[in-house]
Design a protein that fits this description.
heterodimer; A: about 270 residues; 12 helices; disordered C terminus; B: about 475 residues; mainly beta; four-stranded antiparallel sheet; 2 helices; 31 strands
């Protein structure tokens, strides 16, 4: 589990570097960002492998089972799932940084609760298209989510709502958090729909402080960095086409973690509730 | 051992030195380069300035010329600021009273002519000494202007501007041995220029994938072979170095040779890729070897053997356990350069804490020296340093934890013929000179009219 903490920390640092690189003088440094993305991917792989080898008992569930589980979960108010409880007990007490890890877990839960809205909407949209593999991954991640409110009925308009209104989840959010959430969903959407360059540009501009970037290099760089969240620099990953979607949610979760850490404690508490 | 690695003849003394400090707190030195004779040393800095030093007859280097090469620019299309920092300087080997060098920032390469003027024409008929038009009614006789001596004036003028050829940041330039062409390399492409033609260049290497999502490596350094005008080498972020032959095809995406060492699985970590990224490549003067620098090592490659280097030197292996904090502080992205001495018998590279390292290839001995104002007194001999991981064995040892990672020596240069080295530490330039004769039997007097010369050259250049 220490590896998980370390991996999580490295992921946060990496995301911070990518984020900061956009405001650096002289433009994005391609070499450095490439290296950072490699570190990010390595750390994420370790993080996820730890995650899966942890307490995710439902990792092998079929798509149908997942739907049922999701529907069931919708009915229940916030409560830890079986996985949560199992993982909590497995967490060794003699952790180097117990407080920090608790914070991570809390963040994870918070994130997953928001993620639930996104992913469930996504899930229902992509019901027919997702492969079993990607769904299995999605289900594994969302197993630990804590649902803090009844879900809205999924629809395309819900996506738009998430983009524009911070109250999509039924409570006031810090804009960055919803912002990130919607981006992740959009990037996941795009990876599913084939990643047209125009959509990439949109993602880049919505996430970055910069304005619209017309030039090829920066658009591709920035959107490339964003789509790391959706699909990594290929060549080292498996060629499973459905991976991008699950990675999108992984990275979205991590993204949310990152943003959450930047929030002040009070808003974090509100969000958690 | 005459003629080989002179500074190891006497184990106690390494370099006694002159030093010059160039203090300009605003400008961190970003590149250092001797010309082909070693008479001139050029430095470029973060503020876009070039400072050229000339070697005086007594052996000291003094400022010869200073000029502003590049200015910050703004690319309106991309909404990007283009830094004026000089990334590389390369001298042209022209035999001309004037000196030429190429200086590049992230986007634009400029050819500068540096010439001396020590005479001035006086006695013009139409203009007076200040250049104002004379009242023609006062001109009664015609005179022939004569050349009169004046105080030496060194002028630098931009002769060519090679612009708009790189979409990505230029990291290298290298002049071909044919003295007609040169290459410029950015993260993904290498272009070939003719020194006289500025409005076009040929693309000879293109690593850009069709889909930028598939990007897996970038070009870090590129250099022409010192003797074979058709050969060039370029290194990448994946730790490989490729040798390309321009005779094979117009686009050298297919390498002639690929120099890559299998990664050590026991060193695998999150940061393995970063640590293996090659930050500098230098051909030996003989043209037979390649020197590559990655974050923790320098390696010597024989051009005839691709699967592993012939020599590997650990620069600061004690940092291997600190990679995570070096990643956090961005230090792990520092790009250290490396250098050969004139006879290819010694290798030099920089490190942290203002340390730099030298490796003698024959004896396999190495030394760590420090370039800092506290330590460097005029004509004092540099004392070797030692970094210890655990307990100090000697008083002079320095613990790993007390290293200052803000003090880094990224840029070093070795005189092409003599044991004179230039070390750039932030905004300070140190020049060190060896006072030992090659065979080490006689300690030369401290002040000498001419620097010692090598008696033999163990590795004559091959063609």
């Amino acid at each position: 589990m220490e590896y998980k903490v370390e991996a999580h920390r490295i992921m946060s640092i990496s995301l911070g570097k990518i984020y900061n690189s956009r405001v650096q003088r002289g433009g994005i440094k391609l070499h450095k960002n490439l290296l950072v993305s490699l570190v990010l991917r390595s750390a994420r792989q370790v993080y996820l492998s730890d995650y899966y080898s942890g307490a995710c008992l439902n990792a092998a569930q079929s798509e149908r089972e997942w739907d049922i589980t999701d529907t069931e979960r919708e009915k229940f108010p916030p409560s830890t799932t079986e996985c949560d409880r199992v993982e909590s007990s497995e967490e060794p007490q003699k952790n180097e940084r117990p407080e920090k890890e608790r914070e991570y877990r809390e963040n994870d839960d918070e994130v997953k609760s928001d993620q639930a809205d996104c992913t469930s909407t996504l899930q229902q949209e992509q019901n027919q298209n997702s492969s079993q593999d990607s769904v299995a991954k999605v289900s594994s991640e969302t197993l630990q989510e804590t649902i803090n409110e009844p879900k809205e009925s999924p629809s395309d308009s819900a996506l738009a709502e998430l983009d524009s209104t911070p109250e999509a989840n039924g409570e006031s959010h810090q804009p960055p958090k919803t912002h990130v959430c919607s981006n992740r969903k959009r990037s996941a959407e795009e990876s599913e729909s084939g990643d047209s360059p125009q959509k990439k540009t949109k993602v880049a501009s919505s996430n970055a402080k910069e304005g619209e970037e017309a030039e090829e290099m920066d658009t591709s760089n920035v959107s490339n960095l964003i789509t790391i969240f959706g699909s990594s620099f290929s060549g080292l990953l498996s060629k499973d086409g459905a991976k991008p979607e699950s990675e999108a949610e992984d990275s979205g979760q991590i993204c949310c973690d990152q943003m959450l850490k930047n929030l002040n404690p009070w808003s974090t508490a509100i969000v958690a509730f | 051992e005459a003629g080989v690695g002179g500074f190891y003849q006497n184990k106690k003394t390494f370099f006694s030195f002159f030093f010059i400090l160039v203090c300009d707190p605003a400008d961190v030195i970003s590149t250092v380069e001797f010309n082909q004779t070693g008479e001139f040393l050029a430095t470029g800095d973060k503020g876009g300035r070039v400072v050229i030093f000339q070697r005086e007859p007594q052996g000291e280097y003094n400022v010869y010329s200073t000029f502003q090469s590049h200015e910050p620019e703004f690319d309106y299309l991309k909404s990007l600021e283009i830094e004026e920092r000089i990334n590389k300087i390369r001298w042209l080997p022209l035999h001309n009273p004037a000196h030429f060098l190429l200086a590049t920032n992230d986007k634009t390469i400029k050819l500068w002519k540096v010439s001396e003027r020590d005479k001035r024409a006086e006695g013009y008929n139409l203009r007076d000494e200040e250049g104002r038009l004379k009242d023609l009614s006062t001109v009664t006789t015609l005179q022939v202007p004569v050349l009169r001596p004046m105080d030496l004036l060194v002028e630098a003028s931009p002769r060519r501007v090679f612009a708009n050829a790189h979409a990505y940041h230029i990291n290298s330039i290298s002049v071909n041995s044919d003295c007609e062409t040169y290459l410029s390399a950015d993260d993904l492409r290498i272009n070939l220029w003719n020194l006289n033609i500025t409005d076009r260049s040929f693309n000879i290497v293109d690593l850009k994938p069709e889909n930028m999502e598939d990007l897996s490596e970038v070009i870090t350094v590129a250099e022409f072979h010192p003797h074979h005008c058709h050969l060039l080498a370029f290194s990448s972020s994946t730790g490989t170095t490729r040798l390309c032959d321009m005779r094979a095809s117009a686009l050298c995406d297919q390498h002639a040779k690929l120099f890559e060492e299998a990664a050590d699985p026991s060193h695998r970590s999150f940061f393995s890729e970063i640590v293996s990224s090659v930050s500098d490549v230098k051909f030996s003067h003989s043209g037979r070897y390649l020197l590559t620098r990655d974050y923790l090592t320098v390696k010597v490659w024989d051009l005839n053997m691709e699967n592993k280097p012939v020599e590997t030197y650990q620069v600061h292996d004690y940092l291997r356990t600190k990679l995570c904090s070096l990643y956090e502080s961005d230090c792990i992205f520092d790009k250290f350069e490396c250098a050969w001495n004139g006879t290819d018998s010694v290798i030099m590279t920089g490190a942290y804490n203002n340390y730099f390292r030298m490796f003698d290839r024959a004896s396999l001995r190495d030394v760590t020296l420090e370039a800092s104002r506290e330590v460097c007194k005029r004509r004092a001999v540099l004392q070797p340093r030692r970094v210890c991981v655990g307990k100090k064995q000697k008083e002079t040892d320095v613990s790993v934890d007390s290293l200052d990672f803000r003090k880094k020596i990224l840029h070093t240069a070795w005189h092409p013929k003599e044991n004179i080295i230039a070390i750039a530490a932030s905004n300070n330039l140190y020049i060190f000179q060896d006072r030992l004769t090659p065979n080490g039997h006689h300690n030369t007097p401290e002040i000498q009219s001419a620097p010692p010369k090598w008696q033999t050259q163990p590795n004559p250049p091959t063609y």
